[in-house]
Protein 1
Amino acid sequence: METLEGILAEHPFSRDLPKSYIELLLGCASNVRFDAGQFIFREGEEANQFYLIRKGKIALQVFAPEQGPLTILTLGEGEVLGWSWLFPPYRWKFDAQAMELTRAIAFDAKCLRTKCETDHDLGYELLKRFAYLVEQRLEATRLQLLNVYEIRR
Amino acid sequence: MKSAAEELTNAQPHLMVPQRFRVWHTERETHDTFTLKLEPIDVADEFTFKAGQFNMVYVFGVGEVPISISGDPAKPETLVHTTRAVGAVTDALCKLRRGTVVGIRGPFGSGWPVAEAAGRDLVIVAGGIGLAPLRPVLYAIVSNREHYRKVALLYGTRTPDDILYQKELERWRSRFDLQVEVTVDRAPATWRGTVGVVTALIPRAAFDPERAVAMLCGPEVMMRFAVRDLLDRGVPPGSVYVSLERNMKCAVAFCGHCQFGPTFICKDGPVFRYDRIASLLGIREM
Amino acid sequence: MPSTRESAILLRQHFQQLLDALVSRGYRLIGPRVRDAAIVYDELTSAADLPIGWTDEQDGGRYRLKRRSDEALFGYVVGPHSWKQFLHPPLARLWQADRESDSFRITSGAQEAFKAAFIGVRSCDLHAIAVQDKVFLGSQYVDSAYQSRRERAFIVAVNCGQAGGTCFCVSMKTGPKATAGFDLALTEVLEPSRHCFVVEVGSELGGEILSQVPHEAATQADQDTAETIVAETARQMGRALDITDIKELLYRNYEHPRWDNVAARCLTCANCTMVCPTCFCTTVEDVTDLKGEHAERWQKWDSCFTTSFSYIHGGSIRATPKSRYRQWMTHKLATWIDQFGTSGCVGCGRCITWCPVAIDITEEVRAIRDSERSNHESTKERDEHGDP
C-alpha cells in the first residue's frame, strides 16, 4: 500500500518539493475517495480543502437555470482541484462532481494557511505552484472563450 | 470522338474542368455538417488521392468551393467529402439528395507525410471540421498499424453535438493500440467525457517527442497554440505538419488568391511542414 | 531571307507594307493609338492610326499627351494599357454547361483565340510577357487558353527612342533595348535626310514577314545609330530602383513603419494592379440564367487590393489597406522571385503614373533601404563612441 509520502513524491504538483516541505504538507494531508456522482464541493460552500487527484475524473460545473448543470472543465489523474482556499472569503465558486470513482489527497486549508503564515518560504513555494496553475487554466479558458470552432457568416 | 469537355484541356482534364460525380449516399454528422459519398460518371472508376489533398467541388448553378477529401485512399472507388455549411455553396452541398450530380476538379495540393511517419510515433491533433482531412491518415494507420509505433489522436470540438465520425471514433478508441482522446469546450453535465481545450490533452498524450511526427488541422488559433505546446514538449519543428486554409478560386496557382507569403496554399500546401512557414504564421494579415 | 539577328533598314514609306504583310497572313493588328487623351492599345486598320507625332509626359499621378515637332510613329513610351489585356483578357469564359435533370453537361470551353500582331511592344512589356509566360506556362499547371493566345501572337517590338518620366527599366535590367522574345524589333531613326527603322530579326517567322516588305541590309553605321539612340534613352530614366538583395530587404521588413506611412496615402483603388503588365490575379465567377438551366464559368481580373480578395469564413485575412499594399509590393518585388525565379516588376513605371496619389514604388523601396542604412550608421556611431 502506498504511503501518503510516496504519493506526494510522485504527484506532478509536489514531486520536486524539498523533503522538509513534503513533511509540512503531510501534516495537513489525508487520503480521500469519492464515488461516481458524489459532489466534492458546491458553489458557495466554505473552501476548506484543495485536492491532488490520484485517479479518476472530476467535472467542474456551473448550474445555469435554463440549461441545467454545465461542465466547463474536467480534471483527472495528476491534476489539482481548488484554489479558492487561498483567498478570502474562502468560498467555492463552482460545483465539483466526481464522474467516476476518484481517489485524491485532501489538504486541510486552515492547517496549511497557518503553516504558510509561519513559514513564508513554504508559502512562497506553494503560491508559485498555484500561480502557474492559474496561468495554465487562464490560457486554456481564453482559448475556450475565443470560440474558435464557430464560423461567422 | 472527343467531347467538348475532353478537348478543353490537353493533359489535365481533372484539374481545369469539373468532372461529374453522382451522390450515392449522404449522412448527417452534426446539425451543420454532412458527409457525401460520390461515384464517378465521366472518368475512370477510381479517384486516386493522397491523404491531405482537396477537391474543388461544384454545385450546378451555385458555385465551387475547396473541400478536403475525407475518405480512405486505399478505397479509391468511393470519393468522400465531409462539408460544413458556412456559405451558399456548402449550404447547397449539405442539402443534396442521392442521385444529384456535382462537379469535381482535383485532387490538389500536398498531402500528409504518412509514408515518412513509418517507424515513428504519431500525434494527430484535430479541431472541429479539421478532423475531416485527417481521417484518411487514420484509415492508413489502422490498415497498416504495424508500420507505426505509438499513435495518439487528440480531437476537440465546441460541444458533444459537434463531434464528427462518432461511431468510427468509438471503434478506434476501443482498440488497444490507439490512444483516442476527445474533448469539448463546454458540455451539459450529462456528458461523461473530457471538457477543456484540445491543447490540454498534449502534455499527457502517449508519445515520445523525439521520434514523433505531429499532424494538425483545425482553426488557425488552435493550431498555433497546439504547435507551441508540442514544441514545449520537445517535438522538433521539422516534425510538425499543419494544414492551412485561404481564399481559393482556381486551385491551380493562376488566380493568386490563396497566396501566403511566397507559397500558394493550393499548390505548395495545404499541408506544410511547420518550420518552413513558422515565420509567416507570426506575421499578422499575411 | 534575313535570318535571326540580322539587321535591315525599313524606310518610313514602306512601313505600311509591313502591316499589310501581317494582315495578308491572317493577323489582326493591335497597336498604340490615341483615345481619350491617352495612348492605348487597340485594333489598327493602318499605320495612319498610330499616334504619329505624339509624345507623353508622365510623372507620379500625372499623364499628358503633347504634340511633337516631328512625325515619329513611336515617339512616346507606355500608357495605361499593356499587352496582358490580349493575352490574359479581363473577361474570359472558361466553359458553359446545361442542366440535365439531376445532372449537367459541359457544352463548350474557352473562346477561340485569334491571330494577333502586336505592333510596338516595348522591352519592358516584352519582359512582362515573359514573366506571365512563367506564371501560366512554366509550372506544373498549364493555362491552355493563355497558351493558344500566346502561340498566335506575332510581336513587333520597338526600342524606345526616349525614356518616360516614371521609367526604370534600366534598374530592373529589362531594357531599354529589346533582346529576346520578339519576331521583329524596330528602332525608329529620325534624321533630316531620312526617316527609317533599323529592323532586327528575332525569329524565323519574323524573317519571313520581313522578306515580303521592301528593305535593305543595315550597315554598321546604321546599327551604331540604333545603339546610340538606345544608349541615350538609358541615360534619361525618370526613376531608379536599387534591386540589391531586394528580396531579403523586404522579407526582413514586414513590420517596418513605412507600411503605415504608405497606407495613410493608399486609396486601395487597385489602379496599379490594372495597369501593371505582370499582375495576373483573377477571380472565378459562376453564373446562371434566370431559369437555372444554363450555367457559365467566367474568369475576371481581380486585385489583391480588394477586401474580398482574401475573404474566408466571415472575415478578410488582409483587412487593412496597410496589409494589402504590403502584399502587393512584397509580391511584386520579393515573393515573386521565390515563386517564379524572376522579379515581378519590369520597371515600366505605370503604377507610379496611374496612382491617383502618386505613390512611387521606387520611393517606397528607397525609404525602407535608407532607414536600415541610417539605423546601421547610428549603431556604428554608438559602438565607436561608447554608450551615450
Protein 2
Amino acid sequence: MTHVNGSPGPPPGFRRRLRKEDQRFIRGQGLYVDDVRLPGMLHGAVLRSPYPHARILSVDTVAAEAHPKVRAVITGETLASLNLAWMPTLSGDTQAVLATDKVRFQGQEVAFVVAEDRYSARDALELIVVDYEPLPPVVDARHALDAGAPIIRDDQPGRTTNHIFDWEAGDARATEEVFRDAEVTVAQDMLYPRVHPAPLETCGAVADFDRVTGKLTLWETTQAPHAHRTLYAMVSGVPEHKIRVISPDLGGGFGNKVPIYPGYLCAIAGSMITGQPVKWMEDRSENLMSGSFARDFHMRGELAATRDGRIRAVRVTVLADHGAFNGTAQPSKFPAGFFSVFTGSYDLEAAYCQVTGVYTNKAPGGVAYSCSFRVTEAVYLVERMVDLLALELGLDPAELRLRNLLRPEQFPYTSHTGWVYDSGDYPRTLGLAMELAGYAELRKEQEAERAAGRLMGIGVSFFTEAVGAGPRKHMDILGLGMADGVELRMHPTGTAVLRISVQTQGQGHETTFAQIVAEELGISPDDVEVVHGDTDQTPFGLGTYGSRSTPVSGAATAIAARKLREHARLIAAAMLEVDSADLDWERGRWFVRGDPDQGRTITEIALAAHSSLELPEGVEGHLDASCVYNPPNLTYPCGAYICVVDVDPGTGKVSVRRFIAVDDCGVRINPMIVEGQVHGGLADGIGMALMEVIAFDDDGNCLGGSFMDYLLPTSLECPSWELGETVTPSPHHPIGAKGVGESATVGSPPAVVNAVIDALRPYGVRHADMPLTPAQVWRAIQGRPFRTDLAIS
Amino acid sequence: MTIRVAVTVNGTEYTRDVEPRLLLIHFIRDELGLTGSHWGCDTSNCGSCVLWLDARPVKSCTVLAAMADGRAIRTVEGLEQDGRLDPVQQGFIECHGLQCGFCTSGMLMTARWLLDHHPDPDEAEIREAISGQVCRCTGYENIVRSVRWAADFERSGRGEQA
C-alpha cells in the first residue's frame, strides 16, 4: 500500500474487518423482496407489448377477468380514471404506467393482472386480447431525427420530431482555435452500446394498502427509498407520512433499482383495488427488456496535439439514445449527466462537447450500471482517443499519458468544463500500476510474441471519477437536493444505533458505517447497529447510487459522531466538575488536560447522560446527534488500469490474461470491502468490453432479452485481479474518503478495449466497438468491424 | 389438477399437492417457505437456484417439483449442522466471498459438492466448478479464495476438531 502526499496512514479502526451482514446471507436468511410473504397476499403480473411501436385499438379483459383465480385486471384505462396512467420520470419527462394510446417499446407495460398465485396471474395474461395497429419503429438512433421519421411521442401536443435536447459544455470557439493550428489531430466515431446492469435479483415489490388507516407499506427493490416515497406521494395522492417504503436486502442494484417502474405502481394500484397485499416480481426477460438500461452513446471524439505528444484539446459530439421516455435517473441539472468530465485526467488548453438526445422505440433509461452518471462514457471516450493519438504519434500509450496527466501541484484543479477536481497524484498512481504490471517487460514480451505471430495486447487506461452527488447548486432529482441525513443515538449502556438514508445493495454498509462511528467514538464496531432501508425508521436522504454513500452519508456519520462526542464532553465536564475546555479526547475517553487519570469513558458518559446527574444550564440529557450533510463539492477518485490480453486470430476470441488495477479512492475505511468493490467493477468492465450488449433487429425486436443472449462474465472469463492503491485523502471530506463503488466499472472497459486493439495492431486495426465478441474481433481483423447496436449484417 | 410430491429437504419430510408444472425453485420457496435458494433467470444461466437433488447440484428453476418426488433435497438452510457453520460458509465470511448475497446460496451448494468430491482443488478447478453460476458483485476472485479457504480448513483437520 502506498500513501502519497505524505499523508499519515489510516486511523487504527479503518482496517479489514469481516462483514456483519454475512451471518444472515451465508445461512440463506437474507430477506429479499421476493421472500416477503404476507397473509392474504395476491400476485401480480404485467402484460407487455410484443411490438416496439403500435397503436392500441382495444384491450379486451373479459376472459381474463373470468379466470377463477383472477381478482383484478388493471389496464391503462383503469389507471387513467384514477389519473395514474402516466407518471413523471426522474428527468422531468412523463412515462406511461400502463399504455393507453400507443406502445412505444417492445416489452412496454400494457395491463396488470392480480391473481391468487404467481402462475395463475401469468395464465390470465394470455387471456387478455389486445388489438394493435403496428407502426414503423425508430430503431437506429442515427436516423431518429430524419425527416419523415415516425414521431414516437405524439402524446406531447405539438411535437414534430424525436428530438429531446441539445446540450453543450466547454468553449467551442477556443477549442476550434486550438484544432485549427494543431500539428496533429485524430478523430474516431465510437459507440458505447446499450448494456444492462442485470442484478441477479430482478425488480419487484409487495404493496400493502390498509384501507382503514390509509397507510401504504411498500416492500420494494429500491436504491432510493426516501426519494421513491416522495414520488409516490406526488403521483398517488397518498400523503407522504402515510407511505412507508421498506427496501430490505437487495440482490444487487448497480443503478437498475434507482428508477420507479410501472410494476411498482401497478402493485400499489392492485392493493388499493383488491384491499389485499399484492406482490409483483418481474422475471429476467422483463428485467432485461424493460428495466433501466445503461449507456447507448454514439460518440465522435477528436484530439488536437503537438507532434511531440502534448494533448492540447478534446472535442466530442454525442448522439444519446434515450429510448421511448426520457427517464435517465441522474441528479445533475445537465441532461448528459456528468459527461462533461470527458476532459479526463489531462492538462489541456481547451475542450468542448455537444450532446443531442433523441427518442427511439426502445426501453427508457440510460444512466445505470455503476456509471457515475455517464462518467463511464466520458472516460471511455477520452481513453480510447488517447490511445488513437499514441498510435498516430508512434508513442507508447503509457508514456503519452504520463506526459499529459495533471500534476499534483495543480490541485484543486478546475477543468475546462467547470469541474473542480479535489486531489490526486496521477503520475504516481499510473507509475505504480506500471510497476506492478512490469510494464517494460510486458512490452518486450509482446514484441517477442508478435515476432512469433501471436496476438498479445496491453491496454492502459487512466480515469478521474466524479462521485458523491452532490452540491445543491448543481444537483437535484425532481427538485430534491442531494443531501443525506443520519441519526446517531448512544444508549445508556454505551452501545449505539446509527440510522442512515443510503441503501446497501451489497456494499456492506452495516459494517463500514459502524466502523466510522466506532472510530470516532472509540467503541467497538460490534456495539454499533446500522439501520437502513425503511423510511419509517431512517432520516430523509436520496439513497445509494453514483458511489455516493461514503462521500455523503459517510461524511454525515462522521460529523454526527463528532457532534455526539462534543456533547459527551459537556457531560464529562459536569461529571468531573471541571470546565469542558479543560478536557482532551483520547480514543473512547475525555480526560482532564494535565491529569490523564481524571477522565470518563464514553460508556460512563453515556450512562451519566441518561442518569440523574445534574447538568449545566443548556446541556440536554441523553446522548444523541444528527447531521444532514450537504456536500460542498464532489469527490474525485482516480485510478490507473493495465490489461493484458491474448487474441486467437483464427476465432477472434479474447482471453484476459492479467488485469492490474491501482485505485485511489482516498482513505479506505474497510480495505477488504473496497477491494471487493473493485473486483466486481473489473468483472463488469470485462463483460461490457467483451460480451454484453442489448441490440435490436430492424423491426425493433430486443435481441438481449435473456441470459442466453445477454452474456455475463463468469469465473472463466475473469482473471485473478491484481490490485494496488495510492491514497490522496479528499481535502473536504471529514474522513478523507472519496467513494469507490463505480471506479472499476468506469475505468476498466477502455483498458480492455485498448488491449484488444493493441493486440490487433499487426492487422492495422484502429478501432472496433464494444462488445469485442469473437465475431466482432474476427470482423475487425478482416477490416470491417460491424455496428454492435443492430443485428449483425 | 394436482400431483402429490413427497420430498425430504434437509432431513425433514414434506408432502404437498401441487400443480404438475410447478418448478422446483417455486416449490421450495413458496410451498415450503425455504427462501434461501433464489430465483434469478429461468434459463439455467445464473445458478441462483442451485440446490442438491439426491446429492448433486441442480438448477432448480429448470426442474419440475414433480421430478423431485421421492428424492432428497439439500439447500443452503441445511449446511449449518448443530449450530456449526459448514467450512464453506465460514470461508465465504473469512474471504469476503459475498456482497449482496443473492448468488451465495447457490455458490455455497456447488462449493460443498466440489470439496466433497475434490478436497484439494486448485484455482482452475474451482473456477471451472462455479462457472455455471453468475455473481455480479465479487468478480469471482474472493469466491475462489473462499472455497480454497474451506479446502485448507478441512484438509488441516480443523474441521473435525471444531
